[in-house]
Every structure is written in structure tokens, then in C-alpha cells.
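Morning F.,

Quick status update on the modeling queue. The single chain you submitted on Monday has been processed. Sequence for confirmation:
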Amino acid sequence: MQNLGFSDRIIHWYTAHKRDLPWRQTTDPYTVWLSEIILQQTRVDQGMSYFLRILEAFPTVDKMAEASEDQVLKLWQGLGYYSRARNMHATAIFVHTQCNGNFPNRFADLLKLKGVGPYTAAAIASFCFQEPVAVVDGNVERVLARFFGIDEPIDDTAVKKKMQQLAQEMLSLRQPDIHNQAIMEFGALQCTPRAPACGDCVLAESCVAYRAQRVGQLPFKARKTKVLDVYLDYIVLTDGKALAFRKRSDTGIWRNLHDFVSIEAMEPHTEEARLATLQKWGRHLLSSEPTIHLLSHRKMHIQFHWVLVKSKKIKEALIWQDFQEWDQLAVPKPVVSFLEGTDWSTLRSLAKT
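C-alpha cells below.
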């Protein structure tokens, strides 16, 4: 397909409008890899502080490999999609032990790393090693769908393949690193999902969606993620001075994080059943107001219940942490919000009565 100056226009725009981001100031594959893992499903403004904090704690891939998974998860706490952090740590260990601390320098080899898909592999390969392989993320898909007027669902497997082929055809073989960064930045700042700046767009004259007045309709998806309701009652066990955490060992999104004993169901618990369960653990002190925590595929209805136990000798494996030291553990975001809002003096008073 004829290029039509697409790459030159995108790169020219990028030179004038790009954001000054720290991972753009280096071709170090570890730094680029870290930024790309963090920015998967995370906005730049949200991910920046995490990037700087993790890079300060682990300035090299070897340092990250030498850390424990708990240390990595604690620094990741609040970003969500915790499998990214677990895969990141596993890859750091692999690069440290199997690659002498050096990242692979080819797209095909980068794909073999845990948690590294085609997009991340293409970003590292092109940014750091000048390999001419196109990146395709949501921003790139949006730009291409509008520019070419792709009136097909972008979540369709065949269409995704078509997008990858288009991106590769439009790629500058002379400057694959700059082109890839430019088209992603263009989608993030200019060709945005809502209210794109079409009036001063360098691609407007050739953009099919703009000429057909269909910018707001493209791209589109055929499938919507079904969101399920989950009802989660946390039983926060305390002796009046410390609280009991469990380390999750299941395969869910919060695996290896610390939270509390809980009862979980797809339907709301009756008040009678809830109280009966709480009384099995000890004396019910108080309950929080129900809150909702939204995930990509779950709507979590969460309520916390403080229960006073007579003894810490409980059969279930628990980690007892003093009230002032709970933040030393890596915990899910809803637990952080709950504990940060806890009135500890009131809790101590109730435990003494």
C-alpha cells in the first residue's frame, strides 16, 4: 500500500508535540521494558510515579531479580492487574540468570519472555535496537481505523491481524523507533477516543473517517466484556492491638497479596448468615459501609467486619501485624482504602469494652 507520506507527517508532528517522558531519554532495554510493563492498562500520569519509584528501588534488572516477589508487589501496590508485576519479576529473574543480565535484542526472542506480548516486544526491539517491527496498541488501532476508515470490529481476530499488517506497511524502515513512538503519541494526544483535534490534524486531508464525518463512530468493538457481581465480606480479625492478614495463594488477580479472611459469593449474603459466620470467629465489633470496587470483569461489593478474637491461636495460617505496621505488606487497593480510613482509637475502645 502506498505510504502517502503518513510516516513523515506523524514524525513531524511528534517532533513538535511529544511529551518529555523519562523512558524516552534512553535506549536501555531494561528501562524501556519497565515503562512498557507499567503502562499496559495504565495511563501515563498514573504510572509515572510507579515507574520512578520502582526504577529507584531496582535500577537494574539484576537488582529486581534479587528482590523478593513481596518487595516487587509492595512497590506495585495500587496499579492493579497484579499478574503484570508477578510476570515482571519472573522475567527479571530469567534475564538475570539465563541471559547474564542482558535483554534479548530481537523481537522473536523478546516474545519468549514472560509477560511480553507482540506490542511490548515490538516497542523494545524498535526503541532500543532499531528493529523495523511495528507496535500496535489501542492508540495505534484508533489512528489506523480512522485514517483508513476500517468499518470492522477491531476486537475481531482477523481485523487485528489486518491492523498489524497496516501498521507494518506504514512503518518507517529508516526510523522505526521514532515512527512507533510518534504514532502512539499521536493517538494519545491528537487522535483521542473522544473529541479528537481534527481541525488541526496533519492527517486530516487523507483521513477517511474525517472526510466521511465518521470519526466518532470509528473504531468500534463487537464484543463487550460481561461484568459479574461478586459479594465479598471481609472478616478483619483483631486482638485489639494487631490484625490478622492472610496471604492469598489462589490464582486470582490478587494472588500473593495480603488481605483478610473472607466469605465470597455471587449473591448478597443474608444478614443472618453473615452474623452467624462472624460469631464463629469471635465478637463482632463493627462493620464498614458497603463499597464497590470495579474491575474489568467484576463489580466487587465489599464490606469489612471487625471481629475481636480471644486468642491469636487460630488454625488458619495468618500473619499478625500491629496496627501501625500493616502498610509493610502488599495489599489490594480496597484494603488500603479501608485501613487508611480506619479510626484506630475508636477500634481500640470497642475492643476493651
